[in-house]
Amino acid sequence: MSLVSDSGHSSTTASPVTSSGGWAGTLFEAGLDIAALLFLPILSLSSHAVAPLVAFAGLMALGRAWPLDRAALRTIRIPALLCVALVVWGSISAAWAIDPSRSFLIAARLAGLFAAALALAVAAGRITGPGRLAGCFVGGLLLALLLAEIQFASNGMLTRPFFEHIFIPPNLNQLADALAILTLPAAAMLLAQRRLFLATLAAVLAAAAVYHFVGSAAKIGFAVALLALVLFRLGGSNLARVAAVLSVLVVLAAPVTLPRLAQSPWVSQDAEQVKFSLWHRFQIWAFVGDRIAERPLLGWGLDSSRAIPGGRAEIRPGAQHLPLHPHDAALQIWLELGLPGALILAGVAAWLWLGLARVDWPPLYTATAAAALATALFAALGTYGIWQEWWIATLSLALFLVLVMARLAVAGAETMAVSPSPALRAARSRT
């Protein structure tokens, strides 16, 4: 993940080479601007629509990044190989999956989503107007907060005429999680651009929204982001390397550690009183741990979580042993793809952290990027199904935006380094 940006610094964007120019390049970049603008507003209204948005953004990114020469391909070779390995192994797992056709379908979807994510990662270094794109994103963030508050206060007035299902407050959980991931990098980017008021406004409004909505994961995630910001600001690249090791251990040890939580006296006696969903989550993990132990090497097949024998049986009325997925990325990939899948997921997490350890971004922005990654991993290890299209799309667009905003943070830091401070300019004017 240690790549070279167009500013000459180690970065996580692709190295600048000749890419689509003229009216075509302008058109592709305008498409990415639109995607950045619509990303969070769409999450606030209908999270599932983010999947087609990332497909559109991926096509625009491919056009913006074309041609993909050897230098560009080298920058994404490791994640590309990991993505290919996951898709191939998932397709092979259809041979023993509970629903082989479902496994093939999910593998095909993942191939498209991963291709879009990789194209976006390359295109982040080719954008000629990163300030415009970041401005579209920040504008979309503020618009999303307004739309979400209207939805929250009116029980879904904006979408009620278009959907059969009624609006419920947890519909905003997806937006809240995205805000927990992206707010701090956006604020750091704005600070680097000397836009203190806008940085403060965006951060305060986003934090207020996260804690106003009902999603507990986003509230904890935002606290995780703040803690990680402090830790990584102090620890720097060394802490990122430690995080890489810890992430690998967390993924590989998940079948041993998480299922045991349900056996603790606190869970059996007190967790349900704190929150029923917390108690239920521990029961799900215990059930999943037993199923992983039955097939630890090969797993049950890609996306077989929804059909695991006994999964739909009820622990008690309204609480199934395994409703659709384990709500933990590590356990789900162990359950479905066994040890090979777990090694791939651990490789992705390690690659992200080690790449972050090598970037040459301003320290504050690097710390907020680390906070974003920590929050994304926290959400992945405690909330959604790992193969949900909207969730992969959200993470892909978040990575793209972090990479684009990094270029602005670097440019802002360089400007501040060569520009005299206001006090120095005033002193010079008096002499």
Question: Can I get a quick summary?
Answer:
By secondary structure, this protein is mainly alpha-helical. About 70% of the residues lie in helices and about 0% in strands. The protein has a two-stranded antiparallel sheet. A two-stranded antiparallel sheet has the order 3-4.
Write the layout of secondary structure elements.
Blueprint: E1 3-4, E2 10-11, H1 22-45, H2 50-65, H3 70-75, H4 77-92, H5 100-123, H6 130-154, H7 173-192, H8 196-212, H9 216-257, H10 265-274, H11 276-294, E3 314-316, E4 319-320, H12 329-358, H13 363-380, H14 389-418, H15 422-430
Antiparallel strand pairs: 1-2, 3-4
Number of helices: 15
Residue stretches low in confidence (pLDDT < 50, at least 5 long) are 1-19
Task: Provide the gyration radius in Å.
Answer: 22 Å
Which class of secondary structure composition applies to the elements?
Answer: mainly alpha
Oligomer: single chain
Count of distinct structural domains: 1
Largest sheet features: 2 strands, antiparallel
Distance between the termini: 49 Å
Total strand segments: 4
Helix residue percentage: over 70%
- In spatial order, strands of the major sheet run 1-2
Mean pLDDT over the residues? 89
The run of helices and strands is: EEHHHHHHHHHHHEEHHHH
Strand content: under 5%
Q: Could you say which overall geometry the principal axes of the C-alpha atoms support?
A: globular
